[in-house]
Amino acid sequence: MKVTIFDNLTSLYKKSADTFVDFSNKAIKDQGRFTVALSGGSSPKAIFELLATKEYEIQVEWDKVFIFWVDERWVPLKDDRSNVSMTFEALLDVVPINMHHVYPMYNYNVEPEIYAEQYEKQIREVLGNEGIFDFILLGMGDDGHTASLFPGEEILNEKEKWVNAYYLKSQEMYRVTLTAPIINKAKNILLVTFGESKKEALNEVLNGNYNPKKYPLQLIDKKNSFQVFTDTKTITVL
Questions:
Q1: Model-level pTM?
Q2: Does residue 138 fall inside a structural domain?
Q3: Which of 178, 134, 180 lies closest to 159, judged by CA?
Q4: pLDDT, tens only, 177-207
């Protein structure tokens, strides 16, 4: 695991975009495509908007990029809370991506539990039964959750399914999410999190006793390919 601390968010966003570009170029050179799972939220949005600029857009062979999502609120795509909608507005509507390579984590025609099964099948069709993404972008909430793996929820015990859906009572909505087993398969994982409100949780995730029921991000293996980009308000020294 590598932790990089930035003095300002502009540098953090730029390094995140550079990392996306680097991983995409390597994957496409080695295997002819780049498979990713993206998170929602304000920090990914800033990264996506940077990738959509001409400076970055020309550095990626977008027609060879396959886009999935890490998690999603079960809301219509036009809803302001939709991660898929945000990603389209910030990035996918701008860059020349092949829309047949984009897999939104929502379908209004089915129940979320059924769609979770369908989404796993889509992943298997693209990635095969090994299920290894080239790159997964994660965030972390103030409570130490990542994806839709929230503290105390039964989904934290999932060992087999790659995708699952459940009703999150605290938010009064269904969530669909990749699970820890498939996230941990990824070749490269980047966690982007910053701000003083994340300080306690990130310290516990990185340095505290193992307690994933309270800090679900601890379910994600801190292997060599796991990187953390954060700022001086979250971590001052390692």
A1: 0.96
A2: yes
A3: 180
A4: 999 999 999 999 999 999 999 999 999 999 9
